[in-house]
Amino acid sequence: MVLDNGRFHKAKKLSVPRNVELTFLPPYSPELNPVERLWRDLKDQVAFDFYRSLAWLRQDVRTALATYTDETVASLTGYEYLLDAASALSSKQLV
Fold this sequence. Notes:
Blueprint: E1 2-3, E2 23-24, H1 35-46, H2 54-66, H3 70-77, H4 80-94
Parallel strand pairs: 1-2
């Protein structure tokens, strides 16, 4: 599993199953974290609107999230070079 360097991913009480290996991205490398493009897209949809309350913002975020299809998420997060690297790693581990 590929993770950023958030402290919560390295908590001492974190329980990781034996069949899961954690691989951490280098610090300050959002270009390697596919979800960053999804967050940017979502933020672009809601960031410049005025919200009278947090509840209104939450509802707008829920509405925006509901519009994402599997294809949209894949197009935003499917970096070709990361998919190639993951494929190479999984092929290597099967040998």
